[in-house]
Amino acid sequence: MISEEYRGAKQWSRDKQAVFTVIWISFLVAAVGTMVFFALFDPVDLSGIFDPDLDVSRDAGYAAGFFFFWVLCAVCSGLTAFLVRTAPKRDAKHREQ
Amino acid sequence: MNKPQGASMYESAKKIYPREISGRFDRLSKIATVTLLGLFYIVPWLQWDERQAVLFDLPARKFYLVGLTLWPQDFPYLALLLIIAALSLFFFTALAGRLFCGFACPQTVWTEAFIWMEQLTEGTRSQRMKLDKAPWSLTKFRKKASKQILWITFAMWTGFTFVGYFTEIRQLGLDILAFSVGGWTLFWGLFYGFATYGNAGYMREQVCKYMCPYARFQSAMFDKDTLIISYDEKRGEPRGGRKRSVDHKEAGLGDCIDCTLCVQVCPTGIDIREGLQYECIACAACIDACDSIMDKMNYPRGLVRYTTEHSLHHESTRVIRPRTLIYATLLTILVGGLFTAMATRTPVILDVIRDRNSLYRELPNDIIENIYTLKVINQSNDPRSFSLSVAGLEGISLDGVDDEVSVDGGGVLSLPVRVRAERDKAIGIHSIDFVITATDDAGVSVTEDSRFLGPTP
Fold first, then answer.
1. ipTM
2. Least CB-CB distance to A8: which of B8, B59, B188?
């Protein structure tokens, strides 16, 4: 057997795993989403629809869009992870047995 | 494939100190790292036709790829390219396992670079372990501080380079020297730099183990003919220490001397001898480590080696099989499609927008008029003249535009036009076509349809 010193890599706690996974995956999906969205729509045109007086630069539009997608995706996958992890362990079928 | 044991999830945190190793695969991985990072850092500085050769000019909504200029309208190409990239990943995974993870993934490549800087400042594996255990001293502080300086400088340069793909890097460099960088540019530079620092300096293999979706689903593309890194259990067991002079076969031992070198060099901290594990990023460091020991012991190399499950069980390995054939066929079709589409791309785009404010206007002499705005985008790099025409309804004609319009290279021309037709021919809704043709090349022509509205019958 190998000695303890070499065995067992650093392990993250389940909570840390969940938090970082949610942040990272929503980041990736938001990046793709932003790319597709802004390939189809120009932020300058969009700000005009939203409010004709609003003068948003493209840079700011892209950034706002990206963070919007990131937060949206993080909320979605965060809630999913939370519900999956806190779900009751046994269902009704289980109890009958 | 082994699953992580539930209990080990809660094990106390242990830092991995990958041991340095040299060998065939280490050389390959160094070549890959230098090539890929070299490309990343050098490409934005290349010039083409007095502009940056590769520039994703987001503020102007134009992508420059060497001689090619791509517009938002060319998005399908990008989508196709992404699908091709994903499919290539599937194809190479089926064929050669996690080749991408071990040699080409940005996470691996930047981690390699960061570990190299760590070795430069803090020394070898055992020196680093000793240093971390030692109490704070001037030497420790000096070593840690110089590592941080190297890391942070490298990370900041990475962020700068990243932003340099989106804004002209030469101008950006001057702006930084003059302390006049735009807010968003600065933000994204720092953001990417910090992400590199965190991912390659600290998170390292954790990203592969916990955060990478590919690592989890790559097993779906594996089969018994996929190239994997594996320990030859039949040959190695029973493992155990022995003197070089001892004939281990007589002593009842396998070829594994249990030196644990393969475990020490592993960047994800696994023991390859426990079988294929999802943490394994196929960097092949353990092969180099084991080969060096086999050489010392005068045993044949390859106790840990690239192999397939079939060949481990002394069966033949098939490279050509339904899985690889299907991936290869799909790839060929898509790549062929992309090249055909790019080659036959007309470098002009015509958008037709009907005036939203009025349906139609009635002019004297029983003429019906509709108003449109035409957007002509010249995708070539030189100015070009185009002729415009409209068809689809008897006697329909364009008014208010010259016979020939000129558009700058890479420019957009917004053109309000009036289209007229006789009243008795224009009753109801008609489908009409606008045609734009380059005056110097009749092959460069696009047709865009719209509607022409007339009075209700």
1. 0.75
2. B8
